[in-house]
Amino acid sequence: MKKIIKYLGLPMLAIGLFGSCEDLDVPITTQLTPEVFPQNSTQFIQTAGPVYVSFRDQFSFNWWWAQSLSTDEAILPARGGNWFDNRNYLSMHFHDWTPDNSGGIWGWASSVIGKSNQAISILQTAMPEGTEKSTLIAELKTMRAISYFMMMDSYGAVPLDTLYGDFSSHAKSTRTEVFNFVESELKKAVPNLNPASGVSTYGRPNKQTANALLAKMYLNAEVYTGTQRNNDCIAACDEVIKSGLYNIEPRATYLQMFYPNNGPQMKEFIFAVPYDPAVGGGGLMYHARYDVPRSMRTRFGLPFTPSAPRSTLPEFYANFESDANDIRNKQWLTGKQYLADGVTPLMVTTTKKGYDEYYTGSDGGATYTYHLELTKPILYRGSMANVKGLDLGNDEIAWNIGYRNIKFYPDASSTSRNQNNDVPFLRYSDIILMKAEAILRGGAATLGDTPLSLVNSIRSNRSTSAAWTSVTLEDLYKERCREFAWEGWHRNDMIRFGKFEGQWGFKTDTNIRHRVFPIPTSALVLNPALVQNPDYVNN
């Protein structure tokens, strides 16, 4: 079993060191002071611990929900009343979210920012000047910058608050101002961040984490600020490429990147979030719980019964149907299912009524055994007048509707629903495809690379089919769908490619203002200086 403490160097003391809060500033409520703690290198690292614990907490939960359920990548309909949850998940699909059910990114990211401000303040006072101090504070400022990037991406204009102990209300800074702040923080951090990769920096940002996030920012700069920054994106990508620290995982190990035993040995991980169910405050990494059909518990040897509410949509799965030789197809559960040997049919025994709740025969209680089959269309069996309360039903047909993603392979070693799979935030393949896209969008080619050569360097490690002979932006978009499915980037991609206002599943909303979420009501109450985002004022 992996131990995230081994990678992060964050003993258990760090998890409970400071109180938890969703404000941007978190006051010290313990008797620990710089005169008592921290006093040495181990304690300095412990002081940074709450930042990483807080970030890990909701990264694979609130961040994933908002970035995937709001797109054609995933849908979470109710099934027999289960998972309706005040339409929290359905609102993501229909794009009719409100300030009361638009996800928890605001509170989560604000908590990380607040804890970062606190830790930076303590360490600036307690630590002696030197390389160790410069690096540790640069890491914390990078974590804060990542959190501000997530808020800017999700909400547009947000308050900038970096001074610990300032409890005044802060008005929103413009999206451009937040962009400029994050850019400045990352560029200032780069010289002080650790240049190494691997075990010594795993789970903490290194120099290339900052460069990779800068590339992501620049590629989306026209969305965020109205001005394209394609050449800057290429330059940032080149910094990562020239570091020589990373490689594209070959076809044989692509799927293993996401297994429960993944970690710093993965060649593509620039910044990944470590998970370990055995560690207190280990965060929520529940992919198998949400993605594995409940009838397949035995197939994966799980110690719990998964609830399997999440499915992909046919519109998204279509990206995987053009190349039968692509290893990425194997991240999906589709069609008829078999036991672990891949040969024995997975049979399920229920009743005729249990299989189909609309069955009208007099023998509805009779035993019925069927070969488990997952169906592709997301079929609503009720009145279309009630479609926004989308409930597929509470029978076997309903629970088997939709193809499922198991990229983050089910963890049979965990004694809870939590998993050991670490989750990447920034990968080397993203650097390669971002550079290809920036060139296609008008940036100047460098290092002898072309969009075609870059994309083929990915595809040659994913498929045994022939190399492409040409590539368009639309081709690149589909390649990103295949490469980064279930990794929390699809909303970002759809917006940049102008596809977020399209129609998929049951969603028909085309409002461009829904590219950002509403500020939660709770945040507006806590901070009277905040003004709600356009289109949500009357909600």
Compact summary:
With 539 residues, the protein is mainly alpha-helical. Helix content is 37%, strand content 5%.
Kindly describe this structure.
The protein contains 19 helices and eight strands. Residues 11-29 have low confidence and may be disordered. Helix content is 37%, strand content 5%. It has two domains: 4-287 and 420-526, Serine Threonine Protein Phosphatase 5, Tetratricopeptide repeat, CATH 1.25.40.390; 291-405, no CATH class. Strands 1-8 form a two-stranded antiparallel sheet. The protein is mainly alpha-helical and 539 residues long. Helix 4 (105-126) runs antiparallel to helix 5 (131-155), helix 6 (175-189) packs antiparallel against helix 7 and helix 15 runs antiparallel to helix 17 (473-484).
Write down the overall geometry. globular
C-alpha end-to-end distance: 47 Å
> Using only CA atoms, what is the Rg?
24 Å
Number of strands: 8
User: Order of strands across the widest beta sheet?
Assistant: 1-8
Subcellular location: Cell outer membrane
Family: Belongs to the SusD family.
Protein name: RagB/SusD domain-containing protein
Domain RagB/SusD: 215-536
Which key terms come to mind for this protein?
single chain; 539 residues; mainly alpha; Serine Threonine Protein Phosphatase 5, Tetratricopeptide repeat; 2 domains; two-stranded antiparallel sheet; 19 helices; 8 strands; 37% helix; membrane; RagB/SusD domain-containing protein; TPR-like_helical_dom_sf; SusD_RagB_dom
